[in-house]
Amino acid sequence: MRKTDGVNNTWWRKYTSLVSRNCESSSDELNELSFWRNKLFAAIMIYLFPLSFFAVIPGVIMSFIGGAIPLGIADVFILIFIAVIALVPGIAIHIRKTLFVILIYLSASILLYFLGSFGPGLLYLLIVTIFIILIFPQKYAFWSVGINFLICVLFGVAVHYNVIDHTLVPLYSVGSWIAISSNVILLSSVMAVMLPMLFNGLQKTIDNQKRLELQLKKDQKALMISLDKVKYKNNELEQFAYIASHDLQEPLRSLSGLISLLKKRSENKPFNESNEEIMTHIQVSSDRMRALVTGLLEYARIGIEKKMALVDCNKVVKEVKDDLQALIKESKAELIIETLPVLNAYPSEIKQLFQNLVTNAIKFRKEGVIPKIEIGATVVDDNMIFYVKDNGIGIAVEFREKIFVIFQRLHSRSEYEGTGIGLAYCRKIVELHNGKIWVESEEGKGASFYFSIPENMD
């Protein structure tokens, strides 16, 4: 017994799986009303086909006994029609639904012809209205009411003028037919009005759910951005703590040591050349200390109490070129500038960004080679990707990330002046605009700096 049940369950699963594949659409989303309409249609077909046997077999037997052989043939045809709709693959779902509705109307018409008001023909007209409302969009609801009305009128006219050639015709009454069929039309109209209201409510619920899901995704994205900003700020604080305990202390220690040495040497002695050298070192250390502190303050103030505005990058780069005119002339640098976009951004920060990148491109040039700098932009996936390319000394692969860390230098101050904060400025400015900055370079082969800024910055 258990083995038989297992076989039956396997057969039923295969059958339901086949009908579901044929009558459901994989392209509809779970939260779309069309998904549930197709789901309901598949459920109807799953149970309608096996249940039709229980209705068709006795119907065929009784039609042959009663001499209504065409009715029995029609029942067999309807059963085959249902099997085609449910089981034959490759038919579009909207065609299956249309054939299903035609089938029910055909069944209703046949029953009206052979049995009139004595059979379930009018009930089938009511059922087809319900099915159309359930499996088709709302606009088709009143179509069924119109078709039902037309069929009832045509049948009444046929009865009145004796168009129908059937043994039951003498028993038909136009008056009773009008009374009965009008109730069916009335019920069809009521359902065509009321049931779509239920579906409209379901659709509103689905739409509200989708809006809530979208809002939740936006909130989650905003939360992730906030968390990233907090993480970034924490990293900045850690860097500041390291700088305060190491980098900024080093010039102070030098000052303290030099001043102590100066005091010892100047006891009862006039200043000599050695003392002057010490004073020079003190001055240099003081200047470096001032530059570091100034750099830190400027770095911390990036983006604070600033407002975004439309920024024409072409004008910004022209201003940068004018400001660096002396450096460009001294190095004989050649700037190739393509047409740049207009952005919603922080104006002063964008100018600082371009100025630092161009200054670096000129500073880290090859000896005896005229600097050549290319500036341009392109659109990639709703982001503007800017680039500043040079033919300078390049950057070794292992230092591509290190150069963006505050106060990290790849060269000694005797080789190249500066505090080592310029590219850290650049990264902070780009990240302030929800973008990214990176470099593609090899040592001795120039450097290409890229940074992205979203086209639609809020």
Share of residues in strands? 5-15%
Runs with pLDDT <50, length 5+?
Answer: 410-416
In quaternary terms, these chains amount to: single chain
CA radius of gyration = 42 Å
Order of helices and strands: HHHHHHHHHEHHEEHEEHEE
Question: Which strand order do you get reading across the main beta sheet?
Answer: 2-4-5-7-6
- Tally of helical runs: 13
Please report the distance between the alpha carbons of the first and last residues.
69 Å
Strand tally: 7
Helix percentage = 55-70%
Mass-distribution shape: rod-shaped
Q: Which class best fits the helix and strand makeup?
A: alpha+beta
Calculate the mean pLDDT score and round it: 79
Summarize the main sheet.
Answer: 5 strands, mixed
Describe this structure in words.
- The protein is an alpha+beta fold and 458 residues long.
- The protein is 65% helix and 9% strand.
- The chain is built from 13 helices and 7 strands.
- Helix 3 runs antiparallel to helix 4 and helix 8 packs antiparallel against helix 9.
- The longest helix has 72 residues, at 174-245.
